[in-house]
Amino acid sequence: MTPEEALVATVAEIAPEIKTLRLSPVKLAEAALARLETTGRKLNAVATLMRESALAEARAAEADITAGRYRGPLHGVPYGAKDLLAAKGAPTTWGAKPLLSQKFDEDAFVIKKLREAGAILVGKLAMIELAGGMGYNTAAASATGPARNPWKTDCWTCGSSSGSGAAVAAGLVGFAIGSETWGSIVCPSAFCGITGLRPTYGLVSRRGAMALSFTMDKLGPMARSVEDCELILEAIAGHDSEDPSSLSEGPPIALPPDVRAMRLGILRLDPKKGGDGEVFEAFEAAVKVFAGESLHLRDAALPDLPFEPAAIAFITAEAAAAFEPLLSSGRNRQLVDPSAHVFPETSKTVTGADYVRAMQARRLMQAEMDKLFDTYDVLVSPSVPYLATKLSANLEKALPAPDPLGAAGNVCGLPALSVPCGFSKSGLPIGMQVVGRALSEPKVLAVGRLYQEKTDWHKRRPTL
Amino acid sequence: MKSTLTRRSLARLLAAVPAALAAPLAALPAAEKKAAAPALTEKERKDIAKGQSDLKKAMAALRKAPIPIGTEPAFTFSAVARKK
Fold it and tell me: Mean pLDDT, 10 residues at a time, over chain A (464 residues)?
């Protein structure tokens, strides 16, 4: 396998090549850096290249493996981190023009964990400014410009993990770390035709990551297969005593023995509320794949609770608190999107009482969602009811459909996996999400893995 | 033109003078901050009105939700809702 071939393969495929040194970690890192520099820049997917440190890490990995100190499947694999993760020695811009020179003295916890696993950080990846914390309405709301979708470069990647989505789809890195507060892993994974996992809230430490919404932010892997997401999750999950939200327990990573005994709740979206017909068709075809495998399928519905308003209350109030230094200094006016310029005024609409009310609602929502998962092991639904939008689109007009499952999952901190489940006639990817109870990653991943064993959507690569 | 300075506002102004003299540094930044705040453009005014309107609708939906009185807010949030 050549380094160029390895960059479009899965981690599970390239790991044995690296282990036996048929594939050199140094040559692989060089290839990734070259592609990030050329294709990555064209796609507006790159925030910072980590050339020197990456090559040093790759040389160390190669020396270790040569000496028989192979650490596991991520050893020597190049990856990118969304630019809201602190990396010592590099700028950490949070995708925001007023923070282009921001630096931190310490690596984020996930970067430390990945370094322990031997993965090579080759670059910081572009993102929507402040992960969209002050709202945004165009793909251009980023210090690095609008991220181009590798499948159709006049289309968007979705956000806010836009560079992570583009870089994985385009074969610039072996995998990437993204973050999700509401949709920021699931949507770019769907738009870019990759596999992304939003873990349970608290499963992956957020130390060293930008805080947008303290009670909704999660970090997770974006990769080319479910199997890769499992490998990466295994490396980054775990308790961190310095992150107050970090769970003391982790999920058993081993898959449950019998995926076919699982009960799948099929959550169909109402096309009248918006969406592209081809997405709904692809989803129905995916449901047939599960039916063909004799899984227990039943139609499901979400509890009638205000998930989206609660998510809006959390994000607005918590972002106003998290970004107070930026707001009080007026530097929010240097951000690209006009929504951010008026955020100090608009955010005041959410009162303290609204925030507490959302907290009360969250308790009910958690209980009701938990009850729902007594009936179903997982819910499956389209990741996003739309195909990738044009770069120039007004997002409010182009993506008007509600997202109750995204809101419910993020407000309650539930895991979600997005897998490719088809393509439009125009060649744009379509995603399906699998959502489970908190800490049910093994079930969610098992369903995704079964689907990828039976389909090959995740094996398709864009021509660039 | 009739003066807008009423007896009451004059009294307030006079009452504020000693405090301003006693703590001029504290008084100054507020005045500067106000002066430095850029005037809103017409588009920004519209954006604010729209943003506030959208948020008001969302918060109204939240207020209408049937949440029993006394429901304990999830102040310390954990995704793990119950022991399994």
Answer: 96 98 98 98 98 98 98 98 96 98 97 98 98 97 98 98 98 98 98 98 97 97 98 96 90 72 96 96 98 95 97 98 96 96 96 97 96 97 98 95 96 98 98 96 95 98 94
Q: A 339-358 residues with CB below 8 A of B?
A: 339, 341-343, 345-347, 349-351, 354, 356-358
The two most distant CA atoms of chain A are separated, in Å, by 61
For A312, the closest chain B residue by CA position comes to B58
Q: Are A45 and A138 a contacting pair, CB within 8 Å? A: no
User: DSSP assignment, residue A83?
Assistant: T
Helix, strand, or coil (residue A433): strand
Is 50 exceeded by the pLDDT of residue B21?
no
Q: Using CA of residue A125, residue A126, residue A130, residue A131, what is the dihedral sign?
A: negative
d(CA A132, CA A171): 25
Mapped onto helix, strand or coil, the DSSP state of residue B12 is helix
CA distances from A206 to A327, A399, A440, A442 (A): 23, 29, 20, 21
Amino acid identity at A425: K
- How far apart CA A223 and CA B68 sit, in angstroms, is 43
B49 in A contact zone (CB under 8 Å): no
Model confidence band, residue B81 (pLDDT cutoffs 50, 70, 90)? confident
Min Cα separation A442/chain B (Å): 15
The ipTM (two decimal places) reads 0.90
- Helices A352-375 & A404-411 angle (0-180, nearest 10): 100
For A82-225, where are the alpha helices, taking DSSP H only? 109-116, 162-169, 186-192
CA A401 to chain CA mean position, Å = 20
Catalytic: which of A142, A162, A179, A184? A184
Helix axes A11-19, A25-35, angle to 10 degrees: 140
Over pLDDT 70: what percentage of chain B?
A: 52
Q: Do A349 and B37 touch (CB under 8 A)?
A: no
User: How many CA atoms lie within 13 Å of B2's alpha carbon, on the beta-carbon side?
Assistant: 2
In chain A the domains, ranked by start, together with CATH numbers, are 1-464 (3.90.1300.10)
